[in-house]
Amino acid sequence: MSEKTIEKPTPNDAMTMEREAEAEERAAARQASLLKDGWAELRKRPMFITSAAVIVLLLLLAIAPSLFTARSPFTDGFCQLTNSMDPPSSGHLFGYDVQGCDIYTRTVWGARNSIVVGVVTTIGTTLLGGLLGMLAGLVGGWIDAVLSRITEVFSALPIIIGGLLIMSIFRTGDVWTVSFVMTTLGWPQVFRIMRGEVISNKYHDYVLAARALGADSWRIAFRHILPNTLAPVIVITTMNLGVYIAAEAALSYLGIGIQPPNISWGLMISDAQDRFLTSPHALLFPAGALSITVLAFIMLGDVVRDAFDPKMR
């Protein structure tokens, strides 16, 4: 019977593993320092505190609208035509719309669909664009060329026009369909940023050192390159949240996005536009909620960019 020999690591192998571990520790320390410095910078910015407070409030509106209003727009008798276009009063702060529905309650409940579309689309575009961008940047060659050409095709189609075309095919205006359509059209931006960051980082000394020490491509990608490419992706996704919320409102305003009986700020604006001169409150309140939401996310994206981009300090 032949005895199996147990291979013991040689001194060279042990030294190689030690050097690889040191390279990983330096990369992790570099990324931790960037995040720590960025967070310290954020806490000093009044704009960050203000925008974050508004966003927390908006998330509460989306998650638990019953905390802000005891009524539900989906109950029988909620809308009374006798109250049509009545102005704001002490009991109804935003007044009534053309169907006699309380605008304050509809505005509160409308936050859910608008914010869910923005969040789901942002997550979808980040995952799809980020993974494809990393693949193109790491592998290169014909895969990079094909993915880049596909990206150019989608980039040439504006999100509103593309949304109109694709939504006319689905003919179902719910949150998930709108999110899917905007994810399909919005991922190229994240792809280009991730691809550029990967190409830039894969030639840095710490990556070359890890490769020379024998680290495989997947280990290099997820342990070395990915952590050092997240900052610009976080910045652009934060800003895109507001953009996608505005895009959903635009599609709903044009009658191709969220459809009744669902509630959307874009739908409310569309219903009120013809009576703006006689009853401006029906349009101003949902439009104001939309504007504040988009502005809060864009402000947050600006301050995050300033904090995490060393060139902006």
TrEMBL record:
Pfam family, one: BPD_transp_1
ABC transmembrane type-1 domain: residues covered: 111-301
Highest taxon of source: Bacteria
InterPro entries per the UniProt record, alphabetical: BP-dependent_transpt_permease, MetI-like, MetI-like_sf, OppC_N
Gene3D superfamilies, alphabetized: MetI-like
Entry's localization field: Cell membrane
Topology with respect to the bilayer: Multi-pass membrane protein
UniProt-listed PROSITE patterns: ABC_TM1
Transmembrane segments: 48-68, 115-143, 150-170, 229-247, 283-304
The entry's keywords: Cell membrane, Membrane, Transmembrane, Transmembrane helix, Transport
Assigned protein family: Belongs to the binding-protein-dependent transport system permease family.
Name of the protein in question: ABC transporter permease
Phylogenetic placement of the source organism: Bacteria, Bacillati, Actinomycetota, Actinomycetes, Kitasatosporales
